[in-house]
């Protein structure tokens, strides 16, 4: 095999690997993580990209919280969901990198 053929095949392999990583990243960014708030207060949902897509609060349970406490619980829930989504995203990409021997 000539040097040019080797370079061509290497470039094709790199292109295929890039596509695989891009697909994994796109899928992981779309995945959703839902975090349950304490005391059956509700839940928050974020995407793997960290976008807040849903906040559900049980009105009856909400009455057990003061406004500052409720806001803290919502903020903490959003932060936990974002952290979980980020870890899941990183794990997905790391798995693809390991599989594709990119590390």
Cα separation of the termini: 27 Å
Number of domains: 1
Global Rg: 21 Å
Please state the second-level CATH architecture.
2-Layer Sandwich
Stated plainly, the CATH topology is called Ybab, Chain: A
- Globally, the shape reads rod-shaped
- What is the averaged pLDDT score? 89
CATH superfamily: Nucleoid-associated protein YbaB-like domain
Structural class: alpha+beta
Strand ordering within the main sheet: 1-2-3
Q: Multimeric state of these chains?
A: single chain
Protein name: YbaB/EbfC family DNA-binding protein
How would you explain this protein's 3D organization?
This is YbaB/EbfC family DNA-binding protein. The protein is of the alpha+beta class and 103 residues long. It is built from three helices and three strands; from the N terminus they run αβββαα. A hairpin with a 4-residue loop joins strand 2 (42-47) and strand 3 (52-57). It has a single domain, classed as 2-Layer Sandwich (Ybab, Chain: A). It has a three-stranded antiparallel beta sheet with strand order 1-2-3.
Could you give the topology of this structure?
Blueprint: H1 3-30, E1 32-36, E2 42-47, E3 52-57, H2 59-62, H3 67-99
Antiparallel strand pairs: 1-2, 2-3
Briefly say what this structure is.
This protein has a single domain, classed as Ybab, Chain: A, CATH 3.30.1310.
What keyword list fits this structure?
single chain, 103 residues, alpha+beta, 3 helices, rod-shaped, YbaB-like_sf, YbaB/EbfC family DNA-binding protein
């Amino acid at each position: 095999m000539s040097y040019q053929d080797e370079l061509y095949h290497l470039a094709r392999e790199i292109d295929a690997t890039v596509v695989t990583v891009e697909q994994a990243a796109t899928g992981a960014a779309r995945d959703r993580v839902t975090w349950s708030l304490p005391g059956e207060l509700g839940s928050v949902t974020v995407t793997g990209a960290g976008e807040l897509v849903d906040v559900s609060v049980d009105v009856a349970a909400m009455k057990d919280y003061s406004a500052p406490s409720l806001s803290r619980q919502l903020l903490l829930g959003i932060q936990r969901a974002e952290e979980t989504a980020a870890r899941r995203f990183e794990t997905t990409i790391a798995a693809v990198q390991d599989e594709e021997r990119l590390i």
